[in-house]
């Protein structure tokens, strides 16, 4: 039994899923993987089931009936993990934009440096993004600056989706109260942890845009992130920590 599990949400990731699973399992530390699949038409879940024969104790699959957003996929994954004995719970994309070799660095930030939440950060030391167009880099970079200004969180990469949580963070946050489903979900989770005074550490990573498959970014997701931050901050004034 491992104390760590990596949640990988998927929708049409058949081109990446086997490679990313094998890359996680090739690390020196033993990580488990939970794939949360939203009924991918490309049969991503079927490939995971095939791999479960090879990795019966380490690879897990949670299938959902419909695609209802990144945030709800992670919430379902968090609850699944909290029903088991995992002490460290990770978020990671399936498309290799997050380097599996950095998993141990995030783990060490929590396990050795005593962070409650470790963020794989693109912006804590300059801008470490590869293969994005300049327009998307600027949008992401200034979105994080905007969120930092509004929320007062001392986090450079507030929209980062490469994260390690200590179990007690997810046990303390009311997961049922999380409102956002797109990339604003990442902001909201960090903000909730910040309001609870958990220690957050940013670990510099290099983010590399996917080479296979299709990006899930959309205008609606971006709007949710920009507008949602203001309402999230206002609501925080009326709630006790």
From TrEMBL:
Transmembrane segments: none annotated. The keyword Plastid does not apply. It comes from the Bacteria. Residues 6-173 form the Glycosyltransferase 2-like domain. InterPro entries: DPM1-like, Glyco_trans_2-like, Nucleotide-diphossugar_trans. Belongs to the glycosyltransferase 2 family. PANTHER family: DOLICHOL-PHOSPHATE MANNOSYLTRANSFERASE SUBUNIT 1 (PTHR43398:SF1). This is Polyprenol monophosphomannose synthase. It comes from Bizionia hallyeonensis.
């Amino acid at each position: 039994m491992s104390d760590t599990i990596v949640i990988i949400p998927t929708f049409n990731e058949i081109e990446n899923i086997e490679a990313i699973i094998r890359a996680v399992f090739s690390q020196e530390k033993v990580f488990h993987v939970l794939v949360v699949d939203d009924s991918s038409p490309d049969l991503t879940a079927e490939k995971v089931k095939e791999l479960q024969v090879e990795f019966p104790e380490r690879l897990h699959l949670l299938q959902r009936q419909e695609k209802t957003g990144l945030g709800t996929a992670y919430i379902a994954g968090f609850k699944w993990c909290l029903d088991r004995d995992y002490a460290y719970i990770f978020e990671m994309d399936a498309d290799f934009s997050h380097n599996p070799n950095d998993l141990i660095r995030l783990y060490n930030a929590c396990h050795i440096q005593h962070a409650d939440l470790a963020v794989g950060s693109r912006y804590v030391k300059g801008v470490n993004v590869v293969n994005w167009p300049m327009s998307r880099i600027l949008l992401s970079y200034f979105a994080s600056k905007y969120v930092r200004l509004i929320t007062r969180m001392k986090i450079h990469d507030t929209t980062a989706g490469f994260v390690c949580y200590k179990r007690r963070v997810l046990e303390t946050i009311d997961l049922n109260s999380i409102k956002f489903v797109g990339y604003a979900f990442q902001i909201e989770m960090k903000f909730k942890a910040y309001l609870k005074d958990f220690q957050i550490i940013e670990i510099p990573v290099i983010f590399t845009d996917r080479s296979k498959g299709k990006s899930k970014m959309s205008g609606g997701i971006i709007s949710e992130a920009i507008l949602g931050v203001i309402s999230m901050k206002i609501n925080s004034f009326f709630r006790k920590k």
